[in-house]
Every structure is written in C-alpha cells, then in structure tokens.
Design brief:
The structure holds 2 protein chains of 2 kinds.
Chain A: H1 3-24, H2 30-35, H3 42-53, H4 56-69, H5 74-98, H6 103-110, H7 114-147, H8 151-201, H9 206-212, H10 215-226, H11 238-254, H12 256-259, H13 268-304, E1 307-308, H14 309-314, H15 319-327, E2 330-332, E3 340-341, E4 351-353, H16 357-365, H17 370-408, H18 414-437, H19 443-456, H20 458-467, H21 473-494, H22 496-499, H23 518-536, H24 542-552, H25 557-560
Antiparallel strand pairs in A: 1-3, 2-4
Helix pairs in contact in A: 1-8, 1-17, 3-8, 3-13, 3-17, 4-13, 4-16, 4-17, 5-11, 5-13, 5-24, 6-7, 7-8, 7-17, 7-18, 7-19, 8-13, 8-17, 8-18, 9-13, 10-13, 11-19, 11-20, 11-23, 13-16, 16-17, 17-18, 19-21, 19-23, 20-23, 21-23
Chain B: H1 2-35, H2 37-40, E1 44-45, E2 48-49, H3 50-80
Antiparallel strand pairs in B: 1-2
Helix pairs in contact in B: 1-3
The chains are: A mainly alpha, B mainly alpha.
C-alpha cells in the first residue's frame, strides 16, 4: 500500500477512536464537564496532561528548532520541562486541595476580590486563544500536506472532531480522548526516532545513541567545516539564556490549561504523582527531540551538501527532496552554476531547509517503511487536537463558570450552567477555527507574550497565595498590575517592528534580556511589590488565613471539592 | 491546639523537602546546564560534552526523578504527621 493509503487509514482509525471515546464519556453535570468528576487516576491524568501540553509545535517544530539552534535549543527543553517541578512542588497539590473548578476560582476566593477574579478569567481567555489559533492552523497544515485537502477543509474537519467530544463530554470526554491521543503521538514520535538511531549509530535508543554514538562530534566537525555556528556551545548572551529559561519554567507552571488538569484527580497525593507521570511522558518526547534533531541535521547535510542538480531531479533515493521542494519548504538554487548544490553559512548557500521539515521529512529521508511515515501524520494531528481541546475547555470554563456563573448570575441552576458551558465551548471552537483559517500574522510573537504574561501574573499570584499567608488583596493586585504592565510594555516595545510596524524596535534588550525572557523580570517585580505592599497594609481576614491553612493540609480533599 | 502544632511541624517538614529538591533542580539546570556549561564542555560523557548533555538530557531526566522523589517522601511525611487522606 502507498504512503497515502496508509495515512488515510491511520488518521481515519485514530479519529474514529476519538469519537467513540468522546461518546462513551459524555457527561450530565458541571462537575463532570469542568473537572471530569475529579475521578481521573494519576497516571491517566499524567498522559492527558502530556498530550494537552505537547502541541503541534512541540511535535512538528521542536526538533527542527533544536537542529538549527544547537545548544541554545536547551532553553525550550529545560524551560518547558522544569516548570513541572515547580508545578508539582509548589502549586498542584494545594490547588487540588482547594478544589473548585478553575484558576480564577482560586484567585478570586484567596484574594477575596471579584476584580481579581475577572482579571484572572480574562487573562486565561487571552492566553488560551493565543495558543489555540496555532493549533487549528497545525491541523490544517498536516491535512494539506499528507492528504492533499485544502487547509480550510482540514481545519473544519478538525473542528467537527473536537466539537464532538468537547461539547458532549467536556473535561471528561477531553481527558480520555487525550489519553488516546498521547498514545498515538508518542508512538508516532518514537518509532521513527528509534529506527533512525539504529540506522545511524547501531544503538536503537535515541537518548543513548546521542550520548554514546559519534553523532555530535561528527556534526560539530561538519558545522565548523561549513562555517556554521557551533552546535555544542551557546551563541547567545548567558544572562538572556538564563532569563528565557526561567520565564518559560514559571510560565509553564502558570498556564491555566496545565494547572486545571490537576483539579481532575481524586486526591492531593494523586496530584503529586500525576505531575510526575505527566513529566515522564513529556520527557519521553523531549529527551528524544535532541537526538532526532542531531540525526536529522547530520543526515540532511551529508545527503544534500554537494549533491548534483541531476541527482536531485532524477535519483530515486532523493524522491523525498522533490516532493518537499514542491511545498517550498526545501529549496535549491545553483548560484555559481556548477551543476551542484553546496551548503554554507553565508549567501553562497544553495540549499535552504525550513525547520518544520526535520520531523516530517526525516522518516522519508532515512527510507523508512510507508506505515511509519503515515503514523507521523496521525501523531501530528493528535498533538494539535489534544492541545486545542484542553485550551477550549479553559476558555469555556473562564467565560461560563467564572464570568457568567460566579460574577453575573450566581443563581443559575445546574442545568442552565451546563448548557451555557456547552454553548460557549461550541462558540470558542468556531472562533478558533476562524483564526486557524485566517491566522493573524503575529502568532509567534503572541506566544512569547503568553508565557511572559503567565510568568509575571498567575505564577507569583498563586505561589504567594499558598506560601505567604500575609499576602493580601492590595498587595496581590499591585504586584499583578506592575508585573503585567512592565512585561507588556517591554514585549511590545522590543517587538514593535512585528507588532506595531515601526521601522526600528522602540526598546532595546533590558540589561541584555530579550522579549522572550522579560517575563522573569516582570515576575520578580510582582513578587517584590506584592510582598512589600502586603506588609505595609492590613493582614487578610481571618477566614482567608484559615483557608490558606486548610489548602496546606492534604486530608479532606474529597470533601473540600463537593461544596 | 495540638492540631495546630502538628500542622506547623508538617508544613516545616514540607518546606524543608521542597527547598532541598529545588536546590537540586536549580543546580542541574541553571548551574550545570547554563552557567558552568562552557567549563563542563571540556569534559566528555560518552562522546558528547558534559555541559551540552546537562542542557539537553541530564536536567530533564533529573526533573522527572525529583517529582517522583517528592511524591514518595511526602507519602511518608503525610503519614508521620497524620494528615494523609
């Protein structure tokens, strides 16, 4: 069977599976809809969290980014995993004890302020929409490349699938579908990586092949020979690498769609183990990515550098190069007219490789079998759909639970709230689909913004709420405003060329720290101001201090959730 | 009143464990993976420079272990102070 038939088969089967799981897990009450009835076992929640976290970008672009950045790719590897340690030790167990349904629930109750609740809900909606547009786009791209359908049609098919299990099953449907999606995406990532590691080094485990094979010395030698920057040393200022890593870690721990997953487990103990499982499942992919990156880069350079123009046009083993050339993601240009293509760091370079090719093309480059190539498409779709559905649930819960029920109509009945939740999630799918078909040009800029925002707002706010009883309403609001305003001004100023269309950036790097890492400074400002202002003003009311005491003690998490 | 001192002891034990584990967390990532990486790159592990290994492999493996160690040790601390579920 051809790759295309295999792709239709595997994508079709996985989609049928998601629909079946979604139907089996339809819900009847808001507790099921928002927090899956708090009955998800730790290991299943770990798999769901991993699928929720790893987006189309993690699956498709991560290895490509590392292949091009070399050592500096570590900012994403450490930044997007280190945050789970913060989550497991500092946030998840206590938020689970607190119970309730959402992050704004905690912010609003702990800081006894409806304003804080509303700001938190709007920030959650903003961060989630930023992300979800990119996911729907990813669905469209995978469809168009592998199944030759238009991007808009791919997005619409993705919307219908997500709508089916998210509207019917809410968090419960989403969680169990994500568990299945994790299995598909990790299989799709590991199978080609294991095959490739074995072909190149004779060691089948990618992590061991990277460390004990000779890939890195060979790659570093080639990079130097061709005049590319070093693969094993940093090419950025150390303070910037440090700030970006910290911002991504704190941002990860503060993202509402990640935090809310820990409300779905039955106990505090389960929340701790669940974070461990989540990171283990994520690390399976993230520790494989550097190996895949190095293998693919070496493979591409060795295959393509100095290749004759004739071979690219006719050689059967280079048919993949011709099919990627038609997508425009791989381009050849014989500038010096010698009939061969050479790779170089300067503008004599004749081969241009888009980083998104690394994961998608490598199985073909290495000549792997058709079913293995086809499963990569199913994996990319699983990654995009699982992340999109988690984000859509946060948007729905923020608007229907935090804003509609908690702020506007506290008298709403259970069935009324469930209907509103379903309507909002359906509406959010339509909006996300629209942005997937007509993507705003600055998605990449806005994602840096989402992490900076989460690091400078949610992370300090929740951390102080648990660990510092003395932090009061005034301190929290002051800290949040300063953190958010500083981070926003710095990001917009440094990225004004892309965001506002100015000819030059309005603000240069702040003490050597660029826009991606500026959330770290915003976070420190937030901590300092919240701490100082709280101590200069009145202590929080006794019942709030008692509540903080109670979230610190694991016993009674089951009872706490039923109010 | 007895509950109160028991809860305080529990919270102190928890904070102490968190501090120790976060020190390891910061050491493998910020210190070995970033600050000392250029120096550690003079040493090789298998076939790759040690600083690079910490940044792209070692820190992530340590993170996973840290969370499970925390969960496991907290099981004991929860029981010791009788606050388990």
């Amino acid at each position: 069977m051809s790759v295309e038939v295999w792709t239709y088969l595997l994508v079709g089967l996985s989609f049928a599976g998601y629909i079946y799981i979604g139907y089996m897990n339809r819900v009847k009450d808001t507790k099921g809809f928002y927090v899956a009835g708090q009955g998800v076992p730790a290991i299943a929640n770990g798999a769901a969290t991993a699928a929720d976290w790893m987006s189309a970008a993690s699956f498709i672009s991560m290895a490509g980014i590392i292949a091009f950045l070399g050592y500096d790719g570590a900012i994403y590897l450490m930044g997007w995993t280190g945050g789970y340690v913060l989550l497991a030790l500092l946030l998840a167990p206590y938020l689970r004890k607190f119970g309730q349904y959402t992050v704004p629930d905690f912010v609003g109750d702990r800081y006894y302020s409806q304003t804080a609740r509303a700001i938190a809900a709007l920030a959650a909606v903003f961060i989630s929409f930023t992300y979800v547009a990119g996911q729907m786009r990813g669905v469209g791209i995978v469809f168009s490349r592998y199944l030759q359908v238009e991007i808009w049609l791919g997005v619409v098919i993705g919307m219908i699938i997500v709508a089916f299990f998210a509207v019917l099953g809410g968090m419960k449907g989403i969680t169990w579908t994500q568990v299945a999606q994790y299995a598909v995406l990790i299989l799709a990532y590991l199978v080609p990586a294991f095959a490739l590691a074995f072909i190149i080094t004779g060691i089948p485990v990618p992590q061991l092949a990277l460390t004990f094979g000779d890939i890195i010395p060979r790659l570093e030698g080639l990079q130097t020979e061709l005049g590319f920057s070093s693969y094993i040393n940093s090419n950025r200022a150390m303070i910037d690498v440090l700030a970006i890593t910290i911002a991504l870690m704190a941002g990860t721990a503060g993202l509402p769609h990640v935090i809310v997953r820990f409300y779905t487990v039955p106990s505090v103990r389960a929340a701790r183990y669940s974070a461990g499982w989540a990171l283990l499942f994520i690390a399976l992919l993230y520790t494989t990515a550097p190996s895949l990156a190095a293998f693919a880069k070496l493979n591409l350079i060795e295959t393509l550098n100095g290749v004759s123009a004739d071979a690219v046009q006719t050689a059967p083993e280079l048919s993949w190069a011709r099919s990627w050339e038609t997508t425009g993601l791989l381009t050849f240009e014989d500038k010096n007219g010698d009939g061969a293509y050479i790779m170089a760091a300067d503008d004599t370079n004749e081969v241009t490789i888009d980083r998104d090719i690394i994961v998608l093309a490598t199985p073909e480059v290495a000549g792997l079998a058709a079913p293995i190539i086809a499963i990569v498409a199913a994996g990319g779709l699983a990654a995009a759909l699982s992340t999109a559905s988690g984000l859509l649930l946060v948007i729905s819960s923020s608007l229907s639970h935090d804003i509609y029920y908690r702020l506007l109509k506290p008298t709403a009945s259970e069935s009324e709230r469930l209907i509103v939740g379903r309507l909002v999630i359906f509406g959010a799918i339509l909006v996300a689909g629209y942005f997937g078909i007509n993507p705003p040009g600055f998605v990449a800029e806005v994602v840096a913004f989402a992490f900076g925002l989460a690091a400078a707002s949610f992370f300090p706010l929740i951390l102080l709420g648990i660990f510092d009883k003395r932090t009061n309403n005034t301190g929290a609001v002051a800290g949040m405003i300063v953190g958010l305003v500083f981070t926003t001004i710095m990001i917009v100023g440094q990225r004004s060329v892309q965001l506002l269309g100015t000819p030059e950036p309005m603000i240069g790097p702040f003490m050597g720290i660029t826009a991606q890492g500026i959330g770290t400074v915003g976070m420190i400002l937030n901590f300092v101001i919240a701490f100082v202002v709280s101590r200069a003003t009145e202590a929080p009311p006794q019942e709030i201090q008692d509540m903080v005491e109670s979230v610190r003690i694991p016993r009674g998490a089951g009872a706490a959730s039923s109010h | 009143m007895e509950d109160k001192s028991r809860y305080e002891g529990y919270w102190k034990a928890n904070i102490r464990l968190i501090m120790i584990l976060l020190a390891i967390w910061a050491f493998v990532s910020y210190v070995c993976g970033i600050l000392l990486a250029p120096m550690l790159n003079n040493i090789t592990l298998g076939q790759i420079p040690l600083g690079f290994w910490f940044a792209q492999q070692g820190s992530m493996i340590t993170f996973v272990i840290l969370i499970f160690v925390y969960a496991k040790l907290m099981d004991g601390i929860d029981k010791e102070y009788d606050v388990n579920e």
